[in-house]
Amino acid sequence: MKGFWFIFVLMLLGFVCMAIKPVQAATSIKQEFKASAGVTYQDYRINTSARNQAVRVLKANLSDPYTQIKVGIPDPLNKLSKTIARALTYYAPRHQVVGTINASFFGPTGLPVYLIAENNQLINAGKLPVGKTEYANEPIAFGMKDGKGIIAHYNLDLHFVHNGKSTPITASNKARATNQLILYTAKNPSKYTDTSEKGIEVVVEKLDAPLDLTFGSTVTGMVTKIRDYGDKTKTQIPKDGFVLSATGTSKAALKNIQIGDSISLAVDIDTLWQGADFMLGSGPMLVNKGKVDLSMDPKSPNAITRAPHTAVAVDKTGRNVFFVTVDGRQPGYSTGMNLTEFAQFLVSIGAYQALNLDGGGSTAMGVRYPGDSVVKLANSPADGFERYISTTLMAVSTAPNGQPTYIKAHKSNTSVLLKGSSIKILLDYVLDQYYNPVKASTKNLSITSKLGTAKGTAFTAAKAGKGTLTVKYSQAATSLPVEIVDQLAKLTISKSNLLVRNGDTVKLSVKGYDRKGRTVLMAPNAIQWSVTGKLGTISKDGTFTVTGTKGSGQITAAYGKTKAVVAVNIGPDQEVLDTFDQLTNWTVSSIRATAFSQSSTKKEPVKEGKAALKFNYDFTVSKSNTSAAYLNAAKSLVFTSRPNAIGVYVYGDGKNNWLRATLTDGKGKSRTIDFTKDMGLSWQGWKFVKAAIPKDVALPIKLKQIYVVQPHQELKSKGTLYFDQLQVFYGLK
Asked: How many domains are contained in the chain?
């Protein structure tokens, strides 16, 4: 609760926006669990009237003897991978990746932009941008040393010495830019420097020691080749040597070097970082000594833009490391934060130092969910999918496999149980004492309760009352609440009344409720069914089969003295759906034709009643493809009993058209039925026509439209039809 109010106060002070008036905010933790003994995952949701934020936090407690922080470095260095996929490559026995985030910024060629070191060796020298508007304008890194996380400035010393003169090197294994001096080693993704002729390159081989770039080391070799300015020959990087490549003002440092000269290459780091497990350069610094303190201009465009972000943070002891992501560019779910807002959140969760990492569409976090063996994507990347990224940071558990300690299970139904009913107990997962998943078989699951009996994973209620179900797997145990009643206060049947036809089959279901109005789970055979009247039969599972041809009555469902009834009427075998005395339910549409409808006049044909539907069509307006004119039912005519056919009186005009209808079945599938064959509407005067309904059409069936169609160009004409007494037939053979 203290953490909640702390964040709440931050919000009121302008956490979400920098407006003068504070914005009311609600912060909650949607999900929280332990990914391992030393790593905790939290999913924060921050909601305000202005915007929403989704923030994920992985907290690694390095005081746990089995918890480590590792860096995932591409090999070769420009090989990009998705964050989750990179984590999977580091899995090994007693090296379980339980959490991961994307880390380094990287350039268009895939190479990381800033410093990377591992095992006290320089992997990538990197280069700092110039100016306070850039992310990493100061040399700041996150790393691990002596079991603690460090976020601090560093001083990298990378230089070469020729004839007693020391010259600094700009960067390593990068595309060479103007006025830069670049070191190329065998770790370069290409075998060649791939530079233009506008520079000087010196190849150094025959080293007196392996070139591993260990901090504090110096290696000396001999110049074996020189590529002068203007030479377009590609320079190959020696496997056991290096290349110095300079352009612009930096060429002066290489001009006086001759083949056979001795050159020494030295690399070192300041004392704080010597012996570090790894270093990862990035920026800007977000939190310094527990306070928001950006190492870039907080008003610059990169700093004020709300976007997805990734950060790494440490507490004051360095024994707690935080991986943090905020999603963005997804209005309604998560807008994203500017860097000041992001820093404020980091302070609220206990960050003493915090460093920004690559963000935007690259932001990704993976976590090992309880019961899983590997990490899965936890956040929602801005692009809708994971991007390919460069380096990653990982929280690793080195714990051995232990004994079953934690278990999670759930009931197949959470309702109150009626005595005699049964539920299944479903196993979610079993974990050992280190939160590693245990392969558990439900055959070894035990379920006990004073209120019932268990067989396998099925529990049967035997006694009314409140209690628990104890679920055990070896030494792992959990309790599930259970409540059982032996009486019902109310029953309801799924249908309040039924209009059925001879031969129909209707499946009825029943719901039971206790005195508090709660749904009660009943055994399938708990209900006694009965039918009054000569209507049909009903089975123990509530399946009613209509055998009568007419009449009415009721179906009763009973449990003891508690009953529910449904009225039943057997409908006629034939019904009039529409007399067409009124046309309010019909509209007209057409394809490659014109059409309109109206009620017939006193002098026009009427089969029965006051009027017929007069339907005028003109297919001559189109000389290509099929023409059609439709009568559309504004309110679909629905059949819940299975009809055999639909019929209608049609006053024909002898124009050899095709009369059809469209149905929609219970699965939403459109079906076409025929009143006539192609060219079959050939009569003049009144005729009653039927369209058979296939037996495989799923209920309920909807009549959507009746239409006239002419697929033959030579038969296209215009004319008038009259419709009267639309009917449906049941039980016809």
From this structure: 5
pTM over 0.85: no
pLDDT of res. 24: 55
Q: 498 and 626 share a domain?
A: no
Provide the CA 209 distance to its chain's centre, in angstroms.
Answer: 52
Residue range 480-494, pLDDT digits in tens: 999 999 999 999 999
**Are 352 and 469 part of one and the same domain?**
no
Kindly provide the residue ranges of all beta strands, DSSP E only, lying in 49-89, ordered along the sequence: 52-61, 67-72, 81-82
Domain final residue, candidates 268, 296, 316: 268
E strand map for 420-475:
422-432, 446-448, 452-455, 458-461, 465-473
Sheet with 543-546, edge to edge strand ranges = 505-507, 543-546, 536-538
Q: How far apart are the first and last CA of the chain?
A: 73
Q: Residue 469 is part of a domain; what is its CATH number?
A: 2.60.40.10
- Asked if the structure places residue 244 within a domain, the reply is yes
Regarding whether 723 and 600 lie in a shared domain, the answer is yes
Residue 327 CA: distances (Å) to CA of 8, 97, 152, 551: 20, 22, 26, 65
Per mean pLDDT, which range of 135-144, 307-316, 495-504 is the poorest? 495-504
- Nearest CA among 19, 34, 22, 704 for reference residue 367: 34
Distance, CA of 429 to CA of 440 (rounded, Å): 8
Look over the chain and give the mean of its residue pLDDT values, rounded to a whole number: 94
Q: Is the pLDDT of residue 689 over 90?
A: yes
Do 706 and 590 lie in one domain? The reply is yes
Asked whether residue 449 is assigned to any structural domain, the reply reads yes
Residue 399 lies in a domain: no
Dihedral Cα 392, 397, 401, 406, nearest 10 deg: -110
Whether residue 396 is contained in a domain is answered as no
8-state DSSP, 300: S
pLDDT over 80 at 440, yes or no: yes
Quote helix, strand, coil % in the chain, to nearest 5. 5, 50, 45
What is the DSSP pairing of strand 217-227 with strand 416-418?
unpaired
57 and 191 belong to one structural domain? no
CA angle, 313 then 153 then 60, to 5°? 20
**Alpha carbons 309 and 320: distance in angstroms, whole number:** 20
Beta bridge partners of 370: none
Calpha distance 333→599 (Å, rounded): 54
Six-digit token pair at 691?
């369209």
Q: Are 238 and 191 in contact (CB under 8 A)?
A: no
Contact 540, 510 (CB under 8 A): no
- The burial of 531, by beta-carbon neighbours within 10 Å (0-12 exposed, 13-18 middle, 19 or more buried), is given as middle
CA gap 632, 708 in Å, rounded = 12
- Rounded to the nearest angstrom, the gap between the alpha carbon of residue 704 and the centroid of all alpha carbons in its chain is 37
pLDDT in tens, 222-276: 999 999 999 999 999 999 999 999 999 999 999 999 999 999 999 999 999 999 9
Give the number of other Cβ atoms within 10 Å of residue 655's Cβ: 20
Domain region containing 262: 157-268
Other CB atoms within 10 A of residue 250 CB = 22
What does the pLDDT read at residue 19? 36
486-540 confidence digits (pLDDT tens) = 999 999 999 989 989 888 899 999 999 999 999 999 998 999 999 998 899 999 9
